[in-house]
Write a structure and sequence with these properties.
Order of helices and strands: EEEEEHHHHHHHHHHHHHHHHH
Radius of gyration: 24 Å
Bound molecules: acetyl coenzyme *A
Strand order of the largest sheet: 3-4-5
CATH superfamily of the largest domain: Citrate Synthase, domain 1
CATH topology of the largest domain: Citrate Synthase, domain 1
Mean pLDDT: 95
CATH class of the largest domain: Mainly Alpha
Helix content: 40-55%
Number of domains: 2
Shape: globular
């Protein structure tokens, strides 16, 4: 192999430049140049220099990160080096949250302390209930979540001290602990039901089910299969490197605002249908197909561009999304408790047909995380508009890990992209009576 540099010849001037190439963990995945090195390429002394133009960051790394690795070609997802399959099978959401934030799996003592702190920060100030009551009865729970998590910043003014690691830790406990409480209260508000308070005897997922579904019983007992399934679903959503909401978290957090405001921004990014809403669309699509016999007819519509096969395709994965494979298995376990869901049979048959069809094969379209998750959520009794809220709870540790890594990275500054200006050149103001 030759030198780790790139030689660029500017044909406008005939000058040649040599730019270093830098690497991440893998030499064949993530080699890059610093686009700031392009600034030396100028046609004249006063020239600003060359920039990279990359709308939507299609080929721009905005950071170096040690948190999550995705190889979309091979369908690999790892948190801190650990394969998602192993974490889904052997870890728990709180342990994975610890891993994603600290970089290492906890010892027994560390995990006990971590679990204790998160369990003991689940309560929210009673005043939050008052303004939650102000939302209309049919307010979308995600809208309520964006508003209330942002409002937490007014209850914790100490959170502004983002440079203090101990202070950051305190806000991390609070955010991971309080997101399910806010989400469950938003759900119960939409039903007009009294809020159910956290139960510290239950697991993270079990307590969330308690706050959602507890009725008149003195003590809510979550079904262990459903509790485990929800915990695994949270594990699968913990992080997905520089996606839209993680980028929002980093970008907004780079102004050094408190983490509640930054998480509100990330939650808002997740709310959009291009990011957190596809699982709901899958459910509607499966209901519309209605039976296995109608699948070929539906596939025909997809191929003539009259419909999209929702839950298929991904910007990064050009292989089976590893999370979809795990969710498909959890779905089977959930249905042993909730009874069979005919939508699962339709989904499995749809997947089988699509994966053998030349249209999907040549475009490398495989099931993504959303293909099976909506079916499970429906079976567990969640209404569709709470699906993105479930995603937000699972993703909160990932957002916080991205935020913390950004704050402690000496390369990072306030996020401020450049632009290529294409508007008018200088012109003088025209008085209104002279304008035509
Ligand atoms: N059904 C039918 N055709 C599809 C689908 C699909 N689900 N997805 C992609 N294609 C086709 C496109 O029409 C295109 O065909 P062409 O080359 O003949 O024009 C080709 O496959 C490439 O697709 P793009 O749209 O260029 O891929 P892109 O990376 O821009 O889009 C996306 C990815 C948005 C996820 C797309 O696959 C899609 O719309 N899928 C359905 C929605 C969905 O499931 N979203 C959830 C994604 S996972 C998540 O965000 C959590």
């Amino acid at each position: 192999m030759g030198k780790d540099t790139l030689t660029i010849t500017d044909n406008r001037t005939g000058k040649t430049y040599e730019i270093p190439i830098q690497y991440g963990t893998y030499p064949t995945y993530g080699a890059s140049i610093r686009t700031a090195d392009l600034r030396q390429i100028k046609v004249s002394e006063g020239d600003f220099g060359l920039m990279g133009y990359d709308p939507a960051f299609m080929n721009t790394a905005s950071c170096k990160s040690t948190i999550t690795f995705i190889d979309g070609e091979r369908g690999i997802l790892r948190y801190r080096g650990y394969p998602i399959e192993q974490l889904a099978e052997r870890s728990t959401f709180l342990e994975t949250a610890y891993l994603i934030l600290h970089g290492e799996l906890p010892t027994r003592k560390q995990l006990d302390e971590w679990t204790y702190h998160i369990t003991h920060h689940t309560m929210i100030h009673e005043n939050i209930k008052k303004f939650m009551d102000g939302f209309h009865y049919d307010a979308h729970p995600m809208g309520i979540l964006v508003g209330t998590v942002g409002a937490l910043s007014t209850f914790y003014p100490d959170a502004k001290d983002i440079r203090d690691p101990a202070d950051r830790k305190q806000q991390i406990f609070r955010l991971i602990a309080k997101m399910p409480t806010l989400a469950a209260f938003a759900y119960r508000h939409s039903l007009g039901m009294p809020y159910a308070y956290p139960d510290n005897d239950l697991s993270y997922a079990g307590n969330f089910l308690n706050m959602l579904f507890k009725k008149t019983e003195l003590k809510y007992k979550p079904d262990p299969v459903l509790e485990k399934a929800l915990d695994v679903l949270f594990v699968l959503h913990v992080d997905h490197e520089q996606n839209c909401s993680a980028n929002a978290m980093r970008s907004v957090g780079s102004s050094h605002v408190d983490p509640y405001s930054a998480v509100a921004a990330a939650t808002a990014a997740l709310y959009g249908p291009l990011h957190g809403g596809a699982n709901e669309a899958v459910l509607r699509m499966l209901r519309e197909i209605g039976s296995k016999e109608k699948i070929p007819e539906f596939i025909k519509k997809v191929k003539t561009r009259e419909a999209l096969l929702m839950g298929f395709g991904h910007r990064i994965y050009k292989n089976y999304d590893p999370r979809a494979r795990i969710i498909r298995e959890i779905a089977r376990q959930v249905f042993t408790v909730t009874g069979p869901n005919p939508l699962l049979d339709i989904a499995i048959e749809l997947e089988r047909i699509a994966l053998e069809d030349e249209f999907f094969v040549t475009r490398r379209l495989y099931p993504n995380v959303d293909f099976y998750s909506g079916i499970i959520y429906e079976a567990m009794g969640f209404p569709v508009d709470i699906y993105p809220v479930l995603f937000a709870i699972g993703r909160t540790p990932g957002w916080l890990a991205q935020w913390q890594e950004m704050l402690t990275d000496p390369d990072q500054k306030i996020a401020r992209p450049r632009q290529v200006y294409t508007g008018s050149d200088h012109r003088d103001y025209v008085p209104i009576e002279l304008r035509r």
